[in-house]
Amino acid sequence: MLLDQVKKSNYKKDRVTDKPVRSILKAISWRVVGTIDTIGISWILTGEVKTALAIGSVELVTKMLLYFGHERIWDKINFGRQ
């Protein structure tokens, strides 16, 4: 079966390689993409660039913090790891 051919990692290895700094970098890169999307949608809906940038800047910070917390919680959960 195809899934049997995939090299499996163990929980200990995942735990060592999944450091908080990785979660921070992932949060930042994802938020850049997400914030550009939010600013674009806000601009379309409001017709105002200033309002769109204000919404995007607040959303950037709040969602980055939420993502980081979400990642760290999932790092403590064994589900899906071997």
UniProtKB/TrEMBL annotation:
A Pfam family reported for this protein in Swiss-Prot or TrEMBL: DUF2061
InterPro entries: DUF2061_membrane
Sequence ranges assigned to domain DUF2061 in this UniProt record: 24-75
Protein name: DUF2061 domain-containing protein
Entry superkingdom: Bacteria
